[in-house]
Amino acid sequence: MNSPARILGPRDRLISALDDGLRTLFASPSASRPVPGDAKHAMEESAARRHSAGLMRVNHAGEVCAQALYSGQALVARDRCTREVLEIAASEERDHLAWCETRLNELDSRPSILGPAWFAGSFALGVASGLAGDRWSLGFLVETERQVERHLDGHLRQLPGEDHRSRAIVAQMRDDEIRHGQSGEDAGGAPLPSVVRAMMKATATFMTRTAYWV
After folding, report:
1. Local structure of residue 58 (DSSP, 8 states)
2. Disulfide engineering: 189 pairs with which of 37, 93, 138, 208, CB 3.0-4.6 Å?
């Protein structure tokens, strides 16, 4: 007879969140799914490679933020079902993180050096949204994923046509983000006030413009 799954207490969840943060920032991420696309199509033109690398660096920074955000939200979630929605989304975001890092390596580039700052700010934001209540926390997840979906649509328009590998990665990431947003909405996420949505968009714009270069 299988024993019931252990329910983690607040201290255990905090230790788990700290461990996730250290792994996100300092360990080589591993994916549970293969990297989309085929790496055999090399990009010869240096300007196109640099542009692809800049866009994938932005996406990598976004995945660092996603890991921190959902970790912070899950840490203070009241309801177990809410925590599970966040943890499922976070597990697929770890695939995205690994895919982006793999692609950056293939493009002879690197992640943003501001990763610790992105993580710390997003973790604090996740805790704050989680403390507001589970419905608001799930609403924050829904709005985050909707904004990321639009952001990735923009990257699909900007990526060089010959960069099939990056385009395949971004397309799969977008599909996953749509599903994450829907799961948050189905779980009872509350629509966020327009001022909160505007602040989220402004913060994301600052991060994307900075991470492209740094």
Report:
1. H
2. 138
